[in-house]
Amino acid sequence: MRDLNRLTGSTFDVLVVGGGIYGLTIAYDAAQRGLSVALVERDDFGSGASFNHLRTIHGGLRYLQRLDLARARQSIRERRTLARIAPHSVRPLPFALPLYRSVVRGKSVMRAGFLLDRVIAAGRNRGLAASHRLPAGRVVGRGTAVQRFPGLKRHGLTGAAVFYDYVTIESDRLTFSYALAAAEHGAALANHLDAIAPLTDPADKRRVAGIRARDMVGGRELEIKATVTVNATGSAIDRLLEPLARKHSAAGPRSDGTCFSCPGANGQSSVRGSRTGRSTPATLQMIRAISSRSLPN
After folding, report:
1. d(Cα 43, Cα 45) in Å, to the nearest integer?
2. Spans of all domains in the chain
3. Nearby residues of 239 by Cβ (< 8 Å), 6 or more positions away
4. In the chain, which end has fewer C-beta atoms inside a 10 angstrom radius, N or C?
């Protein structure tokens, strides 16, 4: 699969930088459409955020908070498609959101949200096996919430909003399956190949025409040319853009959902997160702390 000479032999239609789940699915989608595709990854496939994540395949319920109906529908379709083509990789999982006395997050608001979700997600189970059909979300009372989810904080609890999504059983297998499928459709994939700088079109310095890469195994440098270059490097996205002298906000990368797995006093891990639309200074400080040392118990 790792053929460096093939990468320099011609100009590809699409070059994907980043071998995580996003980069690999882009490569697979482009390759199955008949395009010539190359993908490079500086580490191993799926070794970054695609390895450290919550493993959930969600149906866009959170987008209803912003009334982003188009994105919610798209998430529902993609969730159903994954359950149809790879049922062995996912299974249904219930989620519970504890409800307390609140105007914006009370029972009435959640019932209205679930009603809207039922309309948008009417075809969520179309074509799926009975084992992978997801029940509609609903609001349960305090007694049922405490019985089904004993770990919820009980003080002031009025009930819980219960909904279903999928969880990946073996996320690494799912990631690698996209790599294998992309290769079967003719994509040229290479791991341990670091993209160190973009190549620009001599006629238009603002247009990226590929990348210069360094082989992390043999030390060789090579140029990979492409009509379209996709930067799917996740948190390292600015690293490849920096040579282009693009202006970026100093506030940090945009983040629709930042989650951390934190060890609790009882020895069990809990997931903390925020959806602010942009990483806050506190979040960025925590990211820097995590990158420099381990979190205390």
Report:
1. 7
2. 4-45+191-244, 71-82+90-168, 258-292
3. 233
4. C
The residue written with tokens 């959930």 in the block is: 56
C-alpha dihedral sign at 161, 164, 165, 170? positive
Give 294's contacts (C-beta < 8 A, 6+ positions apart).
none
Residue with tokens 């297998």: 173
pLDDT digits (tens, 9 = 90+) for 42-87: 998 988 877 777 788 888 888 988 889 999 999 999 999 999 999 9
Question: What is 4-45+191-244's CATH number?
Answer: 3.50.50.60
What pTM did the predictor assign? 0.74
Q: Is 277 exposed, middle or buried (0-12, 13-18, 19+ CB in 10 A)?
A: exposed
Residue in this structure with the two tokens 């210069």, named with its chain if needed: 212
- Express each pLDDT in 205-259 by its tens digit: 778 889 999 999 988 999 999 999 999 988 777 777 777 765 444 444 555 555 5
Amino acid making up residue 21? I
Structure confidence at residue 90 as a pLDDT band (50, 70, 90): very high
CA–CA separation, 69 and 71 (whole Å): 5
Bridge partners, 225 (sequence order) = 210
271 with 54: CB under 8 angstroms? yes
The sign of the CA dihedral 233, 239, 245, 246 is positive
pLDDT at 282: 40
Query: Contact, 72 vs 63, CB < 8 A?
Result: yes
